[in-house]
Specification:
Aspartate Aminotransferase, domain 2; cystathionine gamma-lyase activity; pyridoxal phosphate binding; 17% strand; 2 domains; 355 residues; Aspartate Aminotransferase, domain 1
């Protein structure tokens, strides 16, 4: 069967493996080398590494494009932002990962771009901001408000306006949405999160199905030196092999916990986009109660990371970079693959103790 005939679950397991040769490895080995023998695809470690190839092949197959691994998610987005012409208009979500917004705000402050922040779930507001734009940055679902964008409608209108569209697909993963199929030009990932899935590495990626764009991004990676380590990409590839089963279990937990949280008297609002592993909820008592809850849980870990097999949560406004429109008491909850009743018992215990 050809790759495009295979299900995402099968691609996650099978893509990016070495050729089957007698005595050869089933998994791509870790190539720890700063220099490679000339005559192949690369001869210097900053330009390429065979271990990267495996990760890039499987992610590219899942997203329907060609992938490039970066040292981090912000390195990936930063390389893409570097391609925006000087003084250009960039449209971006008001609610988004603060590392992304921080980069854009800094560029705007230096008069390198003209930044327009929008409510990305308000499609008409986004469309009204497209005139003259060079780049539309979409995060869907957003971090941490979990708002969902109409990617296809925005991408179609952006193309008509002459703007490039990039989508941060970290929360959804290519198993829940494929932005390139919806008209986006680029997909960006913090591969540290659900793709790798074990909270043990920092890695980013950019995916595109445009050859010229791929070459431009590849050059930025090399020029900036924003390259991943061999160990990180090897671990990420291993993580992707189980993405579908991890996502299914964590997503089922998230749906159930969202329903239970929505019915809990101490919870004023629970947000869940209908897919994925992320919940954002608010409790009576605001910031003080929310902070206390996250610090006292036993099973759910108080941490800023997300997308791992373990459940984590935190009060997002404890970070100075979060916009003021994010409620002070909002808890971002990354649901893991533990037993759902154990997770709920942990939540009930801290709700009772802190309310």
């Amino acid at each position: 069967m050809h790759g495009h005939d295979l299900s995402p679950a099968t691609l996650a397991v099978s893509a990016g493996r070495p050729d089957r040769v007698p005595g050869g490895p089933l998994n791509a080995p870790i190539t720890m080398a700063s220099a490679l023998v000339p005559g192949g695809g690369s001869e210097y470690g900053r330009a390429g590494n065979p271990t990267w190839d495996s990760f890039e092949a499987v992610l590219g197959a899942l997203e329907g494009g060609r992938a490039l691994a970066f040292s981090s998610g912000v390195a990936a987005s930063g390389a893409l932002f570097d391609l925006v012409p000087a003084k250009s208009i960039v449209v971006a979500p008001r609610h988004a990962y603060y590392g992304t917004i921080e980069q854009l705000v800094e560029r705007n402050r230096r008069d390198q771009i003209d930044l327009r922040l929008v409510d990305i779930h308000d499609t008409q507001q986004v469309l009204a901001a497209l005139e003259g734009a060079a780049l539309v940055w979409i995060e869907s679902p957003t971090n941490p408000a979990l708002e969902v964008a109409d990617i296809e409608t925005i991408a179609r209108a952006a193309a008509e306006a002459g703007a490039v569209v990039a989508v941060d697909n970290t929360f959804a993963t290519p198993l829940r949405q494929r932005p390139l199929d919806l008209g986006a030009d680029f997909v960006v990932h913090s591969a540290s999160k659900l793709l790798a899935g074990h909270s043990d590495l920092i890695l980013g990626a950019v995916v595109t199905n445009d050859d010229r764009a791929f070459t431009a991004i590849e050059k930025r990676r090399s020029v900036l030196g924003a390259i991943p380590g061999a160990m990180e990409t090897w671990l990420a590839t291993r993580g992707v092999r189980t993405l579908h089963v991890r996502l299914e279990r964590a997503e089922a937990n998230a749906r159930e916990l969202h329903e239970r949280l929505s019915a809990a008297p101490q919870v004023t609002r629970s947000r869940y986009p209908g897919f994925g592993t992320m919940i954002a909820f608010e409790v009576e008592g605001g910031a003080a109660v929310a902070q206390k809850m996250t610090e006292q849980s036993e099973i759910i870990t108080y941490a800023t990371s997300l997308g791992g097999v373990e459940s984590t949560w935190e009060r997002r406004r404890r970070h100075a970079g979060e916009p003021e429109s994010v409620p002070e008491g909002l808890i971002r909850f990354s649901v893991g693959i533990e037993d759902v009743d154990d997770l709920w018992a942990d939540i009930q215990n801290v709700l009772a103790a802190c309310s």
